[in-house]
Structure formats: C-alpha cells, structure tokens
Amino acid sequence: MKPSQYNTFFEYEGSTIGFNAYSGEFIVIDPILLDLYNVGVIKKDFSELSSLHKDFHDFLVRQGFLVELNVNEFERIRELSEKVDNDDSHFSLTVNPTMNCNFKCWYCYETHIKDSKMDESTISSTVNFAKQVIYNQPNLKSFTLSFFGGEPLLYFEKVIKPILAGVSSACNQKQIQFNCGMTTNGLLINQNILNYCKQYGLKHFQITLDGNRERHDKVRFISEGKGSYDRIVENIKLIIQNQLFANVRINCSAETMAELNSIMDDFSLLRQNDRQFIHFDIHKVWQVVDKIENDINISREFFRDSGFGVTSGSHDNVRNSCYADKRNHATINYNGEVFKCTARDFKAGSGEGILEESGIISWNEKHEKRLQSKFKNPPCMECKIFPICAGGCTQQAIEHEGVDYCVYGFDEELKKEQIINRFLATIS
User: Fold this and answer.
1) Which candidate among 65, 355, 377, 382 keeps its CA 20 to 30 Å from the CA of 177?
2) Would you kindly state where each structural domain of the chain is located, as residue ranges?
3) Helix (H, G, I), strand (E, B) or coil at 292
4) Under CATH, which number does the domain 88-366 receive?
C-alpha cells in the first residue's frame, strides 16, 4: 500500500483532521495513530502499521487514505471525470430569452442589448431541439431546463411560457424527470407568474442580493432614490410561501461585509417549515481583489447558526462538474447562437454552435476543443486538492491554454481553505 497523493492533514479545535480529496472523506486522527501513519509514509511501507493496528490500517484503506501500489490516482480521476462529463442519462438546457436587463450592476460581465428578445422562430426551434433530445436519447432519465439572461422575466409571457410548456409536456409524455429553474433578479416576480411555474414544474429560483438593504439599493435601484431591496425580499418570501425553492446568492465586496449579517433580520421570522425552501449562497464578486474570504466564512457560519442552509463555498469539479463541461448541455442565446459557458459575455460570433430551424444544433470546432481541454495543466498533476478542483472548469482550461495556471493562484492557504469549508459544512 501507499499513501494517497491527495491526503491533507490540518488542525481544528485541538484535533488533527485528515481529508482525502478523492474519496471526500474526513477522519479525526489520534496523535499516536498519526505517528504510526507517518512512520509508514517515511518508510514507504505500511506492513508494520497493518500488524500493529490492523483496524486502523484497514480503515485508512476504506477511506481512501491508503491505496494499492499500482494505482495511478491521476488517471483514475481522469476516467471518473470523463464518465461524469459524458453521462447521457441527463441533459441540461439553458435558454436566454433576452440579453436586456432592468438593472445595470457594476460587476455584470454581460453586454445588455436593448430590445433583444427571442423570436417565435427561435422559440419553436428551441422547443424542437429539446423534444428531439427527449424523444431520441435512449438512456435519458432526466432533463433540466434553466432560464438565464439578461433578465428572463422581461419576456415571461412571450418566451418563457411557450418553452416551459413545450419542454415540460414532452418530458411528461416520455416519463422523463423534469427539473426547471430560473436565474432572475426577482423584481418582476408575482403570484400569476408563480402559478404558471407551479403548473409546469418550474420550482427553483436563483436571486441575487448585493448585501443588506442600504448596500443593495446602491447597486440595484429602480430609479434615483428608489431601491429594489424590499420588493425583492418580499418576492423571495412569496416564492417560499408557494413552496418553491429560492437560492439567495449574496454577492460580496469589502463594502458589503460590515452589515452583511443584518440580512438575516429580514428572514428571521420565517417559520421553520418554510426554511427548507430557502438557501443562501454567499460569494465574493469575482472582480474584487480584497481578501475577504475569512469574513465570508464567518458570515456563512452565522447564517447556518440562524437555521438556514448555506452553500459551503467549496465545489467538486469532478463528480459535480460545471454544466459547461458536459457534453449533454447547451445554452441557447436569444438569437439562436449556442454557447456552453454562461459566466462570460455572449458576444456575437463567439458561440460554439448555431441552432438550426429544424431544431438541430450545428456545433463548430470550438465545442469539441472545449470538451477535450481538461487535464492538460502540469501543476494540477501534483496538487493535493485536484480531485475536487480539477483545474477549474473547461472555460478556465481554454483561457489558460499553453500556460501553467492555478485557479487559486498557487496559494496553498486558499486551497486549504476549500478543505476547511467542506469540513465545516459537514459538521454544521
């Protein structure tokens, strides 16, 4: 046996915690047992550990901390990643009804296009594309439809309703599990919209707050002197009252952090039964360079202690890779251009395919290049958290082609923080 190259040990509240990034397992290790393990590491021989404490030795094997000598751990991760990314039992489709928006947030990476709207022909082609996947993909078990943008609710009646009804009905006809959600700023939500969503299976909403009321209203305002915070919070509560799910993403900068926890005052009266329908996702705005990660972790703990679900901030980019990494995903823009990643601007001509009138997507060479882009970054081969990071997503790999990179800036403390965040999520 040999120690896994993906073992990390750290101290937490007086205990030594072990983490294996491949198995995802945490263990609490007695100092004497840790010494026995370290002797085996130094000697490159764990036979003595097995004879002195077979139960501990076998436990380390089961938890992934010890592996067979002939195991190529890097290749094992590559094989797992390819299996996940090429899984044809699920398909996810993202639709941008528009690139227009009723807000203009300072950090938004998108170019908002006034009067942009998916026309009837593209709506029909989008539904036909989804139906062809649903009817003709023999191993398909589930289909996820997501609405993005722009602000999708600007065109709920003319774009979202026909696509939602068409795709939902096709899934029901073929007895395919249907999942549906929407990323929206939440301003335009009302009961009529929610009634339609419930009828056709749209159950998940992601809505952003830019801090507490005072901070949010400086970033997202309806008109001069008229903020949007109170209206959006009320709409989040309306979603919950309808027993639909709200993922509240809180975008953070240094200016946000001081009063961030006061957001909880606006949700503290939610009944315990209603809290299952809301989840908080607290993240740093990607353009921000301030070191606020520790403050964000403290806020995550505060929200958890207040009785709410909170995203850990650590991702598994192998077992739960980004939708854009998967072969069975497409993002159809309002104009029929097809993309994979939704976290970059939808510039005309930069797409990876075109939606034909027939409902077929004609992919270009960028598409296959993306799908073959992972596992080519040399520093990743030596990284202890590679099984959960995988060098980031395919977009990261494409943008760093031919350049050694690290999504954590080669900062070992930031990597360790990812592990600790996962650990805290398991004990909350």
Assistant:
1) 355
2) 1-71, 88-366
3) coil
4) 3.20.20.70
